[in-house]
Amino acid sequence: MGQIKGFLEYNREEFHRQSVEDRLKHWKEFYEVPGEELLRRQGARCMDCGIPFCQWGCPIGNIIPDWNDLVYQNRWQEAIERLQKTNNFPEFTGRLCPAPCENSCTLGITDPAVTIKNIEVSIIEKAYSKGWITPRPPKRRTGKKVAVVGSGPSGLACADQLNKKGHQVVVFEKNEVIGGLLALGIPDFKLEKRVIIRRVEIMEKEGVQFKIKTNVGIDMATDELLKKFDAVVLAGGSEKPRDLDVPGRELSGVHFAMDFLTQQNRVNRGETINDEARIDVKGQRVIVLGGGDTGADCVGTANRQGAASVKQLELLPELPKERAQDNPWPHWAFIKRTSTSQEEGVEQHYGILTKNLSGKNGKLTKLHGVRLEFGEKDSKTGRSPMKEVPKSEFTLEADRIFLAMGFVSPVKKGLLEGLGVGLDERGNVKTADYMTSIKGVFAAGDMRRGQSLVVWAIHEGRNAAQEVHGYLNK
Prior knowledge:
Layout: H1 6-9, E1 16-17, H2 20-23, E2 31-32, H3 36-44, H4 53-57, H5 64-72, H6 76-83, H7 90-96, H8 100-103, H9 116-129, E3 145-149, H10 153-164, E4 168-172, H11 181-184, H12 193-205, E5 209-211, H13 222-228, E6 231-234, E7 240-241, E8 254-256, H14 257-268, E9 285-289, H15 293-305, E10 309-314, H16 340-343, E11 347-350, E12 352-360, E13 363-374, E14 386-388, E15 394-397, E16 400-403, E17 407-409, H17 415-419, E18 441-443, H18 446-449, H19 454-472
Parallel strand pairs: 3-4, 3-6, 4-5, 6-18, 8-16, 9-10, 9-16, 10-11
Antiparallel strand pairs: 1-2, 7-17, 12-13, 13-14, 13-15
């Protein structure tokens, strides 16, 4: 390491963000790019810790200490080369990943962890600005053709890896834009879509083909796919949302979170939505059910639309500010975190169960809930039993409710039913070494392992590509 005692000399410094007042006026990213000196100081904080637990915490095994040190030494071109050995899309993870690496940082035992995520995105953005990220098509082609169904991070990573091996890759996307959840589900203020377009254009110049508005299994027969390609990779998402099974669910004004988020992304792209279908919460009382990332995205979107008030209800209890004794380093810290969207204005409530919804003339007006209390954790399952608190019923006024309670499985109609692939007990695609029950058909990402993080999706895509490559070389 270049500066052995850097972690003793420098404090953790975050990127500067625009004020809440300013960033609520637009839909763009709101982080200000820091100077190189700040980034070098942050790289210097990386310890010569012997065993880099940050790499253990990273699903794709990023070689984090190396590029931290290279940034400190002002060797940026070497840093991007090292970063690209393990990560196809650091511009995505550097913006969206919750940074499990930082939870496993050795310095984090006693002090604030190294700003690994910020350094990562700074490396890739500097590389783009310097012209170091250029198309590198394979020198030879194998003559094998692979179809990747789904253009989210898993599908894109898989396609990128297989193309590098010389296979001809065609990516099929059912929507009108490449990127899957990145393009339509993630708000622009977290990931501007120019970032995706920039990467896709490079992949196209490297030889990857993209076909949009092609819903395989509906617009294109699955038999045709199997005949035209030597291997197929199913990389769709876990798109079936968890619903709210209570009286009043059918009222107008109750929406799945993803319907709200995708519509706003389409509006930001310049599409016109008719007034009847438009989900606009300006001046309205909004309640978001679910405390995860999707719920936070709804909060940020509602605030930018000008909601009169935003409340976020979470079924589970509020997490502690510090690690519990049964949640030791270097594991992911189950602690309370405040997202940038929540900083912008939201009233949060924990341990809440929605009992029913009510309204007038078919339109939502109220949420009726009850508070919950939780018992001790079960030593085997790790779950805490919950029960309703007597006489804790309450009512909240609401014009819109967004259901952000996670996703249960991939959609079966069309692709999966057409192929007839086997499913596991959770309804995901069942695989062995990423191959499904059909020879030559593989699966990766959320469709295979369930709803997860962008970094896990990239990991899945890379691993699936390795298995496909081995299969094609037999």
